[in-house]
């Protein structure tokens, strides 16, 4: 009996400690996705050889002939750069498939590469496995080559290709549906059957998250510069969205207390173009520019999908590799010495503040904070304060937090830091706080 009473008491305590979720919350797969934060996009195909961004679908298969294609090199560099996965253009708007699809005659099989015996997706899948990276697929619904494009039959062709892709290359973490919808070879536009496309992905890869302008799992951030809104909600009123949604500002910011959890993903290229162009070899973004993108994507609660235009040899170009690795080094300089290590501080959580007391005064200029998004996104306004001469002084203010917020302020020396929560939709739940002295200012 006594044992029973103790058990009941413990169960009661556990229940009392578990907060109630507020509003829309992420699924288990979305939670895992948030933690990835940073992964690569690879645009590769005939355009990498013809110096185009959008092929017209009439390119001869002969143009695709990389002489040194090495997916292990891509994976090695992405891994060393701190990325968690690679999403590849299995098929871009020109319709050329990087794998030998049964449903097209415009593929690697018809190209001279490896005498038509090659399969880029197969090589990438093996390389990702070897380097512990996740793999994702971009497969453009717009197809400027396929003879059925613009007819209802094409939706089935596309579904067949989706099935090939989702069943032949192991686990996929993300499937990327581009919103572009132009004319095909017969001059007609396609009416896409997105519900059927989504169903196909979920049937064969139940854990893969679907990206499109409208989700259902991940939304476009509304620009190709890599910047999430300064206020950025992972929640949005999902019923208003559709593929090729024309309100980028809405996608950029989301909706406070929105009906659906559809977090933003920032896609941006390390060069001006998505595909490789020799004349952009000296236009690779600098580590500092990439840091700015990091702060405005990951630092605003979104994920960063950074594109690397693999070159016409089939390799990540030396200049891109250099920038990626230097950016990793820079991020480590910023974020490897968290001043809030275990045992160096005490904390006190109140209804509207989170107070940290360091064991001794420290110099810092950056605070990283995360909400416990399992219970929803709640905070919409907060200030970072430090105690100086026994008085709290505000050094920075910001709006939303969500998965992560990175806040910079002029360097200060103090023993006491406070996150003063000034606006919430529900009782705030902070999961993690970090403090850094970064090279930012
Ligand atoms: C756009 C496409 O039209 C571009 O070519 C590129 O693939 C980009 C990521 O998405 O909608």
Descriptive report:
The structure is a single chain. A hairpin with a 2-residue loop joins strand 13 (379-388) and strand 14 (391-398). This protein has an 8-stranded parallel barrel with strand order 1-2-3-4-5-6-9-10, surrounded by 4 helices. Strands 11, 12, 13, 14, 15 and 16 form a 6-stranded antiparallel beta sheet that branches. A two-stranded antiparallel sheet has the order 7-8. The chain has helices at 2-17, 28-36, 47-50, 71-80, 120-131, 152-168, 194-204, 248-253, 287-296, 318-335; strands at 38-43, 85-91, 134-139, 174-176, 209-212, 218-220, 235-236, 260-261, 264-269, 303-309, 345-349, 353-371, 379-388, 391-398, 405-424, 430-436. It has 2 domains: 37-335, Glycosidases (TIM Barrel), CATH 3.20.20; 339-436, Galactose-binding domain-like (Jelly Rolls). With 441 residues, the chain is of the alpha/beta class. 26% of the residues lie in helices and 26% in strands. The structure holds beta-L-fucopyranose.
Notable traits:
441 residues; alpha/beta; TIM Barrel; Jelly Rolls; eight-stranded parallel β-barrel; six-stranded antiparallel beta sheet; 26% helix; globular; binds beta-L-fucopyranose
Secondary-structure topology with pairs:
Elements lengths: L1 H16 L10 H9 L1 E6 L3 H4 L20 H10 L4 E7 L28 H12 L2 E6 L12 H17 L5 E3 L17 H11 L4 E4 L5 E3 L14 E2 L11 H6 L6 E2 L2 E6 L17 H10 L6 E7 L8 H18 L9 E5 L3 E19 L7 E10 L2 E8 L6 E20 L5 E7 L5
Parallel strand pairs: 1-2, 1-10, 2-3, 3-4, 4-5, 5-6, 6-9, 9-10
Antiparallel strand pairs: 7-8, 11-12, 12-15, 12-16, 13-14, 13-15
Helix pairs in contact: 4-5, 6-7, 9-10
The structure holds beta-L-fucopyranose.
């Amino acid at each position: 009996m006594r044992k029973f009473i103790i058990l009941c008491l413990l169960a009661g305590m556990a229940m009392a400690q578990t907060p109630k979720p507020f509003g829309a919350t992420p699924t288990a797969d979305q939670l895992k996705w948030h933690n990835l934060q940073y992964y690569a996009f690879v645009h590769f195909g005939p355009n990498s050889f013809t110096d185009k961004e959008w092929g017209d679908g009439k390119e001869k298969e002969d143009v695709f002939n990389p002489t040194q294609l090495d997916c292990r090199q891509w994976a090695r560099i992405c891994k060393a750069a701190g990325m968690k996965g690679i999403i590849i253009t299995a098929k871009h708007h020109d319709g050329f498939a990087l794998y030998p699809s049964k449903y097209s005659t415009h593929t690697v099989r018809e190209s001279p590469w490896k005498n038509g015996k090659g399969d880029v997706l197969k090589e990438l899948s093996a390389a990702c496995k070897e380097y512990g990276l996740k793999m994702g697929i971009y497969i453009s619904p717009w197809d400027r080559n396929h003879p059925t494009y613009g007819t209802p039959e094409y939706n089935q062709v596309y579904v067949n290709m989706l099935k090939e892709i989702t069943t032949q290359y192991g686990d996929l973490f993300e499937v990327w549906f581009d919103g572009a919808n132009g004319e095909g070879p017969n001059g007609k536009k396609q009416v896409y059957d997105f519900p059927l496309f989504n169903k196909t992905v979920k049937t064969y890869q139940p854990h893969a998250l679907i990206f499109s302008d409208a989700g259902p799992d991940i939304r476009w951030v509304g620009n190709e510069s890599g910047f999430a809104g300064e206020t950025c909600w992972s929640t949005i009123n999902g019923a208003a969205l559709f593929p090729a949604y024309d309100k980028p500002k809405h996608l950029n910011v989301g909706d406070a207390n929105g009906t659906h959890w559809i977090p933003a993903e920032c896609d941006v290229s390390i060069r001006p173009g998505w595909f490789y162009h020799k004349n952009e070899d000296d236009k690779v973004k600098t580590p500092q520019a990439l840091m700015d993108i990091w702060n405005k994507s990951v630092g605003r609660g979104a994920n960063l999908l950074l594109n690397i235009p693999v070159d016409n040899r089939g390799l990540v170009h030396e200049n891109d590799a250099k920038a990626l690795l230097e950016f990793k080094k820079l991020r480590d300089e910023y974020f490897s010495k968290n001043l809030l290590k275990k045992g160096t501080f005490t904390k006190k959580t109140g209804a509207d503040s989170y107070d940290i007391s360091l064991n001794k005064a420290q110099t810092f200029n950056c605070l990283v904070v995360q909400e416990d998004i399992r219970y929803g996104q709640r905070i919409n306004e907060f200030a970072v304060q430090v105690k100086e001469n026994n008085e709290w002084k505000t050094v920075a203010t910001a709006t939303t937090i969500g998965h992560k917020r990175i806040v910079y302020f002029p360097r200060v020396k103090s023993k006491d830091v406070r996150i003063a929560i000034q606006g919430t939709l529900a009782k705030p739940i902070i999961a993690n706080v970090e403090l850094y002295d970064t090279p930012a200012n």
